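Sample entry as discussed:
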Amino acid sequence: MHFGWAFVGNCPLASYRQQKTIKNEMAKRKQIQPQRGIERAFGDEMRKARLHKEISQMALYKATGLDRTFISDLERGIQAPSIRTIFRVAKGIGIEPEELIERTRKSRFFAFPAN
């Protein structure tokens, strides 16, 4: 006998339809990428150094253990690096951390926030 139940595996499911609570297309979360600032300057210089050494984000992930999406966020200035991250990135790229910081300070995007 069928009483309006559907079976998935061994689990009976009611055959009625639930009201839609989720949109067909999920809204994409918009990330605001900074135009200026320390994070943007660091990310830009990090990307330049990585590309100059012909290292992909995936290769940098393998060298540093930092997630590829985190590396992407750093390069776009969305995430701020910790001091440990700066050292890991510099080592993975093959440059001194001081050089990466100095390049950041001289970047066209560098803008130290006012108090």
In short: Residues 38-106 form a domain with the 434 Repressor (Amino-terminal Domain) fold (CATH 1.10.260.40).
